Amino acid sequence: MTREIKFRGKRVIDNTWIYGYYYCIGRERNQKHYILPEYEVAPYGREVIPKTVGWYTGLKDKNGIEIYEKVTSV
Predict the structure, then answer these.
(1) Most CB atoms closer than 10 Å: which of 10, 57, 59, 60?
(2) What three-state secondary structure class fits 65?
(3) 33, 22 Cβ separation under 8 angstroms
(4) Are 32 and 47 a contacting pair, CB within 8 Å?
């Protein structure tokens, strides 16, 4: 069984959660962090707050909600 690779983060503009693929652009101090929803293409990634980025663990809690762990390298 393989683990689904998925991330989440809170959008910069409205503080709502967005789910999909994670990427960042720029140099170390000027990086922009993005989540690309599965239904869109790269130019349409949503900018997210770096400290909110989490990686899906492949597990769900007792209510069936996906569990994410904080990504420490962003």
Answers:
(1) 10
(2) coil
(3) yes
(4) yes
pTM for the full model? Answer: 0.80
Q: Which residues of 50-60 are buried (b: 16+ CB within 10 A; e: fewer)?
A: bebbbbbeeee
CA–CA separation, 49 and 64 (whole Å): 26
pLDDT in tens, 40-51: 766 778 999 999
What whole-number distance in Å separates Cα of residue 74 and Cα of residue 58? Answer: 20
Q: Give the span between the Cα atoms of 33 and 48, in whole angstroms.
A: 6
pLDDT in tens, 2-41: 777 899 999 999 999 999 999 989 987 889 999 998 877 6
- In this structure, are residues 9 and 48 in contact, taking their beta carbons and an 8 Å threshold? yes
